[in-house]
Amino acid sequence: MMHPVLTTTVTIACDARPGTYPVTQRGAGDVGPDEHPFRWAQVRVEPADEAARRACRNKAGKLPPPRLEERWAPDRTWPQSEWDVRTFRAGSRITITDNDDEGSDGDITLTSRAFTDRPVLRGAKAVLTATTTLTCDSAPGIYVVYRHDVDQAGPDKPWARLRIAPAASGKACASQQAAKHSAGTSRTGTVAWAAGGVLVAIAAGAALLLWANSRRTRSA
Question: What are phi and psi of 186, to 5 degrees?
Fold first, then answer.
């Protein structure tokens, strides 16, 4: 299922001078001045007298703030844009997909107050993906995801947004994350123990070889 039509509402500035203005479009993955916005449409502003401009300012001051969230089909990967706000439960494991940074395998790190770690987007082809776990103690609300590109100068920029819904059970969520952390620590300990055993075996073998050489030397 696809939703090919997206809509939004804008207000023309009350002090805009008569003339034709370009409407540009930027993608969610556009970063820095090197990626120029796409010239997408044009809008013509008609002349208006001072009385009309005063009425415009009064009307504009009473308008509600624009709704920036976009609604995408549930079967589309997330995020499709910076304002593709999907809802996830606290403590859940989510997949992040980037369709706009081909050739950037391992170059983009994502951060958010809702994440338990700093996922890195990976992929050998046009699509990059990463997985992360949402913290159990994230309060319901909207959270910003920031991106950091390798060799980037300046602060990280907002790249996506998600909405956190309450976890099904706070205690169960915390227990699951603790179990995952414990399993990771256990695996690390096993690897370290195995590596330590190899080093001890090597040291013991070297000592035995030195002892044997010393005995042969004394016998000669």
Answer: -65, -45
Measured CA to CA, the distance from residue 118 to residue 123 in angstroms comes to: 16
For 176-186, the pLDDT digits (tens) are 555 555 555 54
Residue owning tokens 């939703």: 3
Residue 117 has pLDDT above 90, yes or no: yes
Q: Is the peptide bond before 166 cis (omega within 30 degrees of 0)?
A: no
Instruction: Tell me the C-alpha distance between 128 and 110, whole Å.
Output: 12
Distance CA 11, CA 65 (A): 10
pLDDT, residue 201, reads 47
Residues 149-164: tens digit of each pLDDT = 998 899 999 999 999 9
pLDDT at 14 over 50: yes
Q: Give the count of beta carbons closer than 10 Å to the beta carbon of residue 68.
A: 10
Render the burial of 24-57: b for 16+ CB within 10 Å, e for the rest.
eeeebbbbeeeeeeeeeeeeeeeebeeeeeeebe
Query: CB–CB of 162/88 below 8 Å?
Result: yes
CA nearest neighbour of 157 among 79, 98, 68, 82: 82
Q: What letter would DSSP give residue 38?
A: E
How far is the C-alpha of 179 from the C-alpha of 4, rounded, in Å?
42
Could you tell me which residues come within 8 angstroms of residue 20 by beta carbon, excluding any fewer than 6 positions away? 42, 43, 44, 45
Please check whether residue 126 is in contact with residue 102, taking contact to mean a CB–CB distance below 8 angstroms.
Answer: yes
Supply 200's token pair: 């001890």
